[in-house]
From TrEMBL:
<keyword id="KW-0479">Metal-binding</keyword>
<dbReference type="InterPro" id="IPR005123">
    <property type="entry name" value="Oxoglu/Fe-dep_dioxygenase_dom"/>
</dbReference>
<keyword id="KW-0847">Vitamin C</keyword>
<keyword id="KW-0408">Iron</keyword>
<dbReference type="InterPro" id="IPR044862">
    <property type="entry name" value="Pro_4_hyd_alph_FE2OG_OXY"/>
</dbReference>
<keyword id="KW-0223">Dioxygenase</keyword>
<feature type="domain" description="Fe2OG dioxygenase">
    <location>
        <begin position="182"/>
        <end position="291"/>
    </location>
</feature>
<dbReference type="InterPro" id="IPR045054">
    <property type="entry name" value="P4HA-like"/>
</dbReference>
<dbReference type="InterPro" id="IPR006620">
    <property type="entry name" value="Pro_4_hyd_alph"/>
</dbReference>
<keyword id="KW-0560">Oxidoreductase</keyword>
<dbReference type="Pfam" id="PF13640">
    <property type="entry name" value="2OG-FeII_Oxy_3"/>
</dbReference>
<protein>
    <recommendedName>
        <fullName>Fe2OG dioxygenase domain-containing protein</fullName>
    </recommendedName>
</protein>
Amino acid sequence: MPVVDAAWEAWLSSNVTRGCSPESMIEAMVGAGFAAHAASAAVNQAFGRAPAEVAATSGATAAATEAVLARAAPQTYQYDDAPVARGNVIRADDRDVRVLMRCERPQVIVFADVLSAQECDEMIERSRHRLKRSTTVNPATGKEDVIRNRTSEGIWYQRGEDPFIEKLDRRIASLMNWPVENGEGLQILHYGTTGEYRPHFDYFPPDQPGSAVHTAQGGQRVATLVIYLNDVPDGGETIFPEAGMSVAASKGGAVYFRYMNGQRQLDPLTLHGGAPVLGGDKWIMTKWMRERAY
Ligand code: PD2
Ligand code: ZN
């Protein structure tokens, strides 16, 4: 952190004499690495040493500091309306889906009956023999890595790849109230006992070089629907550690969460993970929605 040495003293007094505003001076010092309170104190002192007529017109440095801090602070996420319909039962294309719980910050909705028990069984049976060890996107490179954060196996279905998948894609898009064309293909994941997915964000971190590869088509992810395909006997909840919330896996039920608002801000409270499965296994089906057609 810099200190107010002779060179800075000279800079301060010449800027006061030139008629610079306290705000611009505090901003310049913060930009040079000073803490806001240190910059504010130094600017205050400089105006205090100035001739009375300059000091009188300088205004309050406290207000100037506030303005600088407000500009420097990361923008807090603004919660606007999620696209999901209101009400306790939502008509999702061909099926009525019950709402069990809604949370506004972060935006999380828990549903029952997104899939029937038979549809869950059919998805599991179709997928069982095609599973591969899951990968995770490396944020630095954008490549898929097998890492210990995610101990599951999975398979992707192309959007609308057959009539059964197409029906589910349409129902899910209708429930999420987002265009079916903006959806990634469905992903099935299977976790054995002890399997887990450590807390992460589903969006691609904008400041990481690897994200550009993933957002080139369809843009950023905006919302996720995780559908549970079986009842997990013990553990395996979807957890939101920043919100202190967990959702138990219940066959045919689902958890929706939305992390990108209309201003393209991303909600850090949607940090989430799959808790370790403590008994039995866990099957889920995930839909990620993008900003644009994918
Ligand atoms: O298995 C889950 O509950 C879970 C939790 C968090 C899955 C995902 N994220 C995911 O597939 O992104
Ligand atoms: Zn996730």
